[in-house]
Design goal:
Radius of gyration: 21 Å
Helix content: 25-40%
Structural class: alpha+beta
Strand content: 25-35%
Shape: globular
CATH class of the largest domain: Mainly Beta
Number of domains: 3
Number of helices: 9
CATH topology of the largest domain: Jelly Rolls
Number of strands: 20
Order of helices and strands: HHHHHHEEEEEEEEEEEEEHEEHEEEHEE
CATH architecture of the largest domain: Sandwich
Length: 344
């Protein structure tokens, strides 16, 4: 497919303008179609998103010309050992070697300047099928799963560090005993920490699930009678705040399973089909049509599956269980087209 900018340019050159909202509806449609054509294009889109996330996180208080930064990043990458003829090749090579591409570190060096005196609110969003990562002003690192949103101030002030989060994220909180770090989940509760590592799964409409990897956290919320309650977690514990009845449940957890998504994997250990399909819907932006409700009773075990494409995962499930699948087609093409996959 050819870019609207000219026949000599491929669609990926529109990526910086896509993330800053500068494309026409026709250009956006063509670029999104290109990104969904194959896994190679999806990886390129992912790397461009990561670069934009890092730029967006800092440009709130650093004066950055985003387009020029992308150009300088491209020149810098071409000068290193990942040298290839095209930007596409560069992103592919980097993606194969690093979870966080070299471009992010380069962007950091390019835009590092003195921050402004006033704080503003930054908002980061990951699209379906994308994993992003950002370093907050206090050096806390947050990895965001697909369809997640993180809001935080460009500068933490006062005696508390507060961010707002929805979706799934892996938090590596920078230690600061004098300032508590709080992850606020709208309509659910707060995760309070001082310096620790944990995973939070809080997609809208789902239960809020917090898994502590190391350190110590407290989960506080207001119950349906208006009382404030708080629960403390120890490492390798999992807290579930059920949305249908408001109850809280704490159990032992396998942290490797809970955090496998950030390494682009699913670990199957008595995992219900419904949970697997939910992960695949977010990862690949598809809808599933399950013909027989009895299939939801299926559970899967057998270790890790790499998320090397939707078909790869579905074929693995088919081999291990006998369930079958087929593409049905796109639904909602005029608004937000999503492929529907039939499970039977």
């Amino acid at each position: 497919m050819k870019s609207s900018q000219g026949a000599d340019k491929s669609p990926e050159w529109m990526l910086p303008r896509y993330f800053t909202g500068q494309l026409s509806e026709e250009e956006k449609r063509r670029l999104e179609q290109w990104a969904g054509e194959n896994e190679e294009n999806r990886r390129i889109f992912q790397q461009a998103l990561d670069a934009h996330v890092e730029l967006d996180a800092w440009k709130a208080y650093w004066q950055v010309d985003t387009d020029q930064a992308f150009k300088r990043v491209r020149r810098r990458i071409r000068a290193d050992r990942f040298r290839l003829d095209k930007w596409r090749g560069t992103f592919q090579r980097v993606a194969a070697v690093l979870l966080l591409p070299l471009v992010l570190a380069t962007v950091w060096l390019l835009v590092h300047r003195q921050p402004a005196d006033t704080a503003s609110t930054c908002e980061l969003q990951t699209l379906a099928g994308m994993i992003g990562r950002v370093t907050l002003p206090d050096s806390t690192v947050v990895t965001l799963n697909a369809k997640s949103t993180l809001r935080y101030p460009s500068v933490f002030t006062g005696d508390e560090r507060v961010v707002e989060f929805e979706g799934e994220g892996y938090f590596e909180v920078a230690k600061d005993a004098s300032r508590r770090f709080t992850v606020r989940v709208p309509g659910r509760g707060d995760v309070n920490v001082y310096g620790t590592t944990f995973n939070i799964d809080a997609y809208r409409g789902n239960d809020c699930v917090t898994t502590l990897v190391e350190g110590s956290i407290g989960y506080s919320y207001t119950d349906r009678q208006g009382h404030t309650r708080e629960y403390r977690l120890e490492p390798s514990q999992r807290l579930v705040h059920h949305q249908h009845n408001g109850k809280v449940e704490i159990t032992e957890a396998d942290c490797t399973i809970a955090t496998a998504w950030k390494d682009n994997k699913i670990i199957l250990q008595q995992t219900p089909l419904k949970d697997i399909l939910g992960m695949l819907e977010r990862k690949y932006d598809v809808d599933f049509q399950v013909d027989n409700d009895e299939l939801y009773g299926y559970t899967f075990s057998g270790g890790a599956i790499s998320m090397n494409g939707l078909e790869y995962v579905l074929e693995t499930l088919e081999i291990s269980s006998g369930i079958q699948w087929q593409y049905v087609g796109f639904q909602g093409y005029d608004t937000n087209p999503r492929m529907t996959v039939r499970i039977y």
